[in-house]
Amino acid sequence: MASLQRIVMMSGNANRPLAERMAAHAKRRLADVTVSRFRDGETQVIINDDIRGADVFIIQPTSPPVNQHLMELLVMIDAARRASAGRITAVVPYYGYMRQEKKTEGREPISAKLVANLITVAGANRLLTVDLTNAAIEGFFDIPVDHLSAMRHLAERINALRLENVVLVAPDVGAVRRVERFRTYMRDADVAVVFKDRPRPDEAVVSGIVGNVAGKTAVIVDDIVSTGGTLIAAAEALIANGAERVLAAVTHPVLAAGAAERLAASPIEKIFITDTIALDECPAPFEQVSLAALLAEAVNRIHYGISLSELMSDSSPVV
């Protein structure tokens, strides 16, 4: 590929504030792009700047409304390709449909793979994302994937509280590896695992806890909070088993209707989230930790051909 002299960063409508913070950290401006809809709901994209031969980064999490924001991303990629962009990187901090990454019963789609195909066929040359539910989703793509983690940034915020007698809690078995990574930044913390059943989608029932939580400050670590059911069920079980306090650190605040209110009424004192998904407001008990600097650094490294391994390393400094 010929040398790409210019970085062009552009944003859809999904999370313009994050894109603006990223551009500020990268000391660049966002390209002039019009992303709108026709009266019948079709997505319309017009790139008003010249991007011929440029290294284009399209910042667009596929957050709720997922289908609308996904379509915006695909049309923006296609528009950039047809405008002769030199390379196109889809910056998707939150990858919608990632919870549908496998078949759990017959005649069920693997939607995470379908979305990977759509992004690739649209014309993306690379994907930059944060905290996929399952790292195996990277293998759904036939283009390079840079998979960053918010765990260090969230852990640093927890460390700033100077808590004592901490136990890190995996709200289900699938979150154990994430908790172990989180623990590398909080070496004195113990680990506990909540076992849960899902009688129906978006409903969680705790069946037991492995690990000592009595008298401890419990910090639940997860990748997504949607209905809040998993966090609330885990928190109630932790309190019932003797935990003194419950906090949570979660990357993606999907927050389905009513979730914020239910979480505010739960035993969880504070929920630390990131800005991968735009929120109209950040009400109690939420506190937002920005990943703009991390993502901006990743954009610069991708452009200049610098390894991202340091950003993914558990010993790397926070940016």
Automatic annotation (TrEMBL):
> Chaperone as a keyword?
no
EC no. given is 2.7.6.1
Indicate the segments forming the Ribose-phosphate pyrophosphokinase N-terminal domain, all copies: 8-123
Pfam families documented for this protein: Pribosyl_synth, Pribosyltran_N
Which keywords are on file for this protein? ATP-binding, Kinase, Magnesium, Metal-binding, Nucleotide biosynthesis, Nucleotide-binding, Transferase
Q: Which CDD domains match?
A: PRTases_typeI (cd06223)
Q: Name one GO cellular component term.
A: cytoplasm
Task: Identify the enzyme class.
Answer: transferase
Name the domain of life. Answer: Bacteria
According to UniProt, the reaction catalysed is: D-ribose 5-phosphate + ATP = 5-phospho-alpha-D-ribose 1-diphosphate + AMP + H(+)
For this UniProt entry, the molecular function terms from Gene Ontology, in alphabetical order, are: ATP binding; kinase activity; magnesium ion binding; ribose phosphate diphosphokinase activity
Gene3D superfamilies from the xrefs? 3.40.50.2020
Cite a single GO BP annotation.
purine nucleotide biosynthetic process
Q: Fetch the InterPro entries from UniProt.
A: Pribosyltran_N, PRTase-like, PRTase_dom, Rib-P_diPkinase
Q: Which PANTHER family match?
A: RIBOSE-PHOSPHATE DIPHOSPHOKINASE FAMILY MEMBER, RIBOSE-PHOSPHATE PYROPHOSPHOKINASE 1, CHLOROPLASTIC
Please report the name of this protein according to its UniProt entry. Answer: ribose-phosphate diphosphokinase
